[in-house]
Amino acid sequence: MGVLSLFGGRYKRGKNRNNGHSVAAAQADETLSGSLESDLDRLCELLAKPEDMNVRRLQIRATGEHAALIYIEGLVDAAEIHTNILKPLLLETEIGRQSPISIGRVEKAGNWSDTTSAILKGGSVLLVDGSREALVMGTQGWPQRDPTDPKMETSLRGAQQGFVETIQQNIALIRRYLPNRELTFKNLRVGRRGDTQVSIAYLADVANPDILQELTDRIGRLDVDLIINTGELAELIEDNPYSPFPQLLVTERPDAAVSHIAQGRFAVLVDRSPTVLVGPASFVSFFQNIDDYSTRWSIATFIRMLRFLAFFISIILPAFYIAVTSFNFELIPLKLLLTIGTFRGSVPFSPFIEAVFMELTLEMIREAGVRLPAPIGQTVGIVGGIVIGQAIVQAGLISNIMVIVVAFTAIASFILPNLDMVAAVRIIRFSLMIAAAMFGIFGLLVGLMILVGHMISLESLGTPFGSPFAPMRFSDWRDTLVRSPMWKLTRRPLSARVEQADRQGANRPKGDG
Amino acid sequence: MKKYAFNEITTMQFIFIISGIAISYGFIEIPSVLYKKAGAGGWITLILGTLVTMAANLAIVQLMKKMPDGTILDLLAKYAGKWTARVAAVACTAYFLYFAYLGLVYSTRIIKARVLQETPGFLIVFMLLVPTYVIARSGIRIVGRYAELSMWLSVWIPFIFLLVWKHLHWLYLLPVLADGWRPVVAEVPSTFYYFLGFFSTAFLYPFLIKKEKAVLGVLCAHMITLLAYLFITILCFMFFSPHEMSTVNQLGIYMLKSVELPFLEQVEGLFIVLYLFIFSLSWIPTYYLTAFCLSWLTGRADHRPLMRILLAGTVVFSYFYLPGFNTVYRLSDWQAKVGMGFEYAAPVVLLGWVLLRDAIRNRGHRS
């Protein structure tokens, strides 16, 4: 009786999308020959014998069979292979009813495509002379990062763990928050070459099955080479890729993702990517932050409103400045107009040129700050500050008022909690500036009408993006412009189209009781 | 069989589409019309007009109950044959297109007169039609959401008008019935023009999710229209002296000239622009309905190509000719006459005929 016969299960094949795309794939269903030497030759041929692949020949002591253990060095946990595979195979003298290999996940593979893909994904393969099946052992152990504090979505009171690059760990992070039988992970595979694992996490008894079907269909239809990041997946599956608005939330916080899952939404985890997609999203969900729920409701409400105000300021303020200074002088009070006139008098450019120039400068400074390493990044701020703040005004190229407008817009856009929404704001701001430069305040308003019209016709996974404002759903207002006290949030949002709307009971009895 | 299953509107959207179409430019025009025709008692005329309109609209709802899953065109096709329905579709297309065009031109003229004097008219038309296309191409559901949102975005309007409070003279409201009841009652039909647009009920009904609330919706819609009109009418009556009432154009806008805000010099300039959200309700739903009737006529499921042709046609036409204010008023007099027949009389006659036909047929079955 050989070592292999003790294992029942066969190595599960992922959906095979490789057909006709590579040489190795041509022999996808070619089976192992059973002779160790020819199998090893064939394997080296298929994988082109990479330098980091280790082939360890050995003789199993208990049975005397000749065998070879194959794995790729950087992808496996070497210590585990030594103690749990090599040691028992070389030292155990007898095999009882149990296999000597003490590894948790062990499966059998009968053909080359499964065997090679297992090796490339960090498994170890044991070929035994005389057996037509290979033993695949889960010895994955590539370099990993610990779940550290999320960089982009910082929180004052929230958890200090962010998602990491391994999907198993991310799933574990989510499970930690929701040890519930109904928490379900639906696994899919995406990419011809990347073969990335994608998991949809949801609460089976709460989330809407139609949305799940839609999401699964959209991901299942994808035919791409590989997915590096969640952003790519988001762009491939969102409803309207031409929209400036993001239609799916991207988060790097497990607590935020879980909070959405608990509200009946879906989280899409992508292997190798430290962010998670959440959908269906609505416009207001981009203004919510996990801290809103851990601070007192009154201040959370105030900050919510501040964010919406900031959103409007940052999209319309430069456009309004252009409209007022170049078309509609009559709108602003005379004194203010005179003040603006004093500063504008010496400026040689039209308000539009002035505004575009300053906004572009701001965008450049911001972009430079993002990409540069931290020590140099500070210099950018200083240079930008001096250039914008002082020199340009003293030289008489740009008016003081314009500098104030730009600074105000920048600060307003900084308080928006979601990066994708800030990106949308930047694009919209420039379009509105052009509209205002052409038609003044009328152009600005038509621009806003187009924006509103676009927003209400937008959908996220077939769910209205403008909810709860359009369609108007007053019961959902509890967690939008205001963040109602916790005990008032008894129902899940309608915008998630959930099966079970009740979220919690009455935690605060009415009356004297 | 549900023909329009994926395109549904809520009761609130139903209400706001109907009252939005009506209010849009009636809000600006109705005070002076009422004053000129019925004197200081004009607001009574308005209430009477609303009651008549409600009755006419309920007739449409009763009619549509005969065909809950189809529009009035489907109903006609069932009762009076395909060709009658086609003729009706042509008539509806023409009517809604005329309605939309008039609303569009009126708004363009207001914008051109008060905000953008130098800009060519067709450019303004073009600018206004871009959001129209963005909204109307996605179907009645989005039009409904837009109507709903526009109305909610405009709740500030009454408050800004209340800022004229200290300029009001209660005495101007008296005497209520200077010439007795005769002009007040006789001029009821002249208010009808400002309620037009409720014929859209005949097209909105199949899309309504809760059909049993249609009656309530219709009543609410006209109630909102009435409240808006009453508000602006009584305010204007108290603000302007009898002499000013008959000389000033667009009283509502003029009244805002007296409002002073510390951060805004000319309130009415901003008002006109922001009021575009309401103005647009006079042409966005109607352009959609035009395209809808056309696509019904041609048997296409997709109304978007027709919509593009309609809108592009409007812009091109406006490049060559854009009616002036006086022409607009003349055109709207004409529309008032057609609309009265189309929206008030025709549905009632049709309802009578359908009921009679059903009654005769039922008796035939029984005997």
Q: Notable features of this structure?
A:
heterodimer, A: 513 residues, alpha+beta, 5-stranded antiparallel beta sheet, 15 helices, B: 367 residues, mainly alpha, 0% strand, globular
What does this 3D model show about the protein?
The complex is a heterodimer of chains A (513) and B (367). Chain A has helices at 23-26, 36-47, 78-91, 112-120, 167-177, 209-221, 230-237, 254-262, 290-294, 297-326, 334-344, 351-371, 374-394, 400-414, 419-457; strands at 53-59, 66-72, 106-109, 124-128, 134-137, 183-190, 196-203, 249-251, 266-270, 276-279, 459-460, 463-464. Chain A is α+β, with helices and mostly antiparallel strands and 513 residues long. Mean pLDDT of chain A is 86; it is low at 11-26. In chain A, strand 1 (53-59) and strand 2 form a beta hairpin. In chain A, 39% of the residues are buried. Chain B is built from 18 helices and no strands. Chain B has helices at residues 11-38, 42-65, 72-80, 82-114, 121-136, 140-153, 156-162, 181-186, 188-192, 201-204, 214-239, 242-247, 251-255, 267-274, 276-279, 284-298, 304-320, 325-366. Chain B is globular. Chain B starts with 10 loop residues before the first helix and ends with a helix. The interface between A and B is medium-sized, with 29 and 35 residues.
